[in-house]
Specification:
The longest helix has 16 residues. The chain is an alpha+beta fold and about 80 residues long. The chain has one domain: GMP Synthetase, Chain A, domain 3 (2-Layer Sandwich), CATH 3.30.300.20. It contains 3 helices and 3 strands; from the N terminus they run αββααβ. The protein is globular and about 35 Å long.
Length: about 80
Amino acid sequence: MQEVLIAMARGLVDDKDAVQVTVDDSNPREVVFHLVVAEEDKGRVIGQKGSKARAIRTVMSAIAAKEGKRSRVEID
């Protein structure tokens, strides 16, 4: 799952090396992804009115649902 999020984020940003994802799976029913991008690329990942961020969260929720979990993506 983490690789999918990294691939999506790298496709949106200019500074591809700054993309980092950490995973918090301490809760057995929920996975929390912390996406870190360069400051100047945050707008590209979030999108106008949050449309891209919403799409990223939808894709990650669908992937997590296959494993019987919930997911949350936090853009830091």
